[in-house]
Design brief:
single chain; alpha/beta; 5-stranded parallel sheet; 8 strands
Length: 176
Amino acid sequence: MNSKSYWEDYYRSNPDPSGESPFAIFTLPFLEKGMSMYELGCGNGRDSVFFAKNGLEVIAFDQCDSEIAHLNKSCKDLSVVFESGDFTALGKRSEVDSIYSRFTLHSVSEKLEKDTLDWAFRTLKPKGILLIEIRSVLDELYGKGQALSTNEFMTSHYRRFVDFDPFVQRIKNAGL
């Protein structure tokens, strides 16, 4: 099963937002009402909904088309728009105040991560904020599943576990 199929099956079984993540709660004090946000890989929209309910203008992306259709229908009264799309290939977009990436950048290759960081730099407004939660080599899941490389493993889906210092350098190299 490829990763997209895994997530389509997962969200078909868990379509509705079920409360914000601890990372969303942690990041909220860094944001202000009225700010614009792109969420990369929103899944079932739980953090997107949380941010919209707290006064942010959110556009959230995910590759699971049926989940996006469901979210747009069920969340139409909130200031959030859900769009189908691969977060590593969003193309030119309007600048935003913030970009939120929770458990997405470790789900793609290092090259696609780099492309996404470069895109984030071009897409954030001056003084914009990039909010990232990512799995690292210190994660309890590191080493579980079929090894694809030193830091890449396949269980029910692909994960690339990030080494902190080189990751910070890639962020700096992107201009962030």
